[in-house]
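Incident log, structure service

09:12 report received: a user says their structure output differs between two submissions of the same chain.
09:20 pulled the input from the user's history:
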Amino acid sequence: MEEVESKSNFKKYLYVIIVFSIVIGGYVIYSQNKSLKSEEANYSKSISEMNAEMLELHNEIKILKGTNKEINFKKDSLQNNMDFLWIYKTLVQASKLRDDVGTNFSFKPGDKVRLKMDSSVVIITDLVIGGNTFNYYIRFIVKNNKGVISEVSPVELENL
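09:34 re-ran on a clean worker, output below:
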């Protein structure tokens, strides 16, 4: 009889273990399914946020392309208007250099000055600057009372 009871107790324990395993397995499956569903919801939420960001970026790209097209049009129209002046660029730079250098002297074209070498009085008619921005020379064109024009260095002149 004890043998029958022990078999019956063994069967009860076996059934309890099987039922317990099924309940734990069901719980694990339920937890995994719930976790997958929440992960899927988070994934679809992040996908919708990324799509919204991409739409915003596409709109910004359209705006920037329009701005770029407008800038290129304005640049081209300014270039077309300025092309004919390009040939005068060197002349303008030379004039600017002349004006910058000419302001450093105490005498200007039209002034009466004395030549140091013979103390004759002459009139400065023009300022000549040659060379380039880094290496240049300066000469004054002067006219004496006989109408003779000559070029002299600024160190050969003195104020009256």
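09:41 both user submissions now match this output. Likely a transient worker issue. Closing.
09:42 reviewer note: The mean pLDDT is 86. The chain has two domains: 1-88, 105-159.
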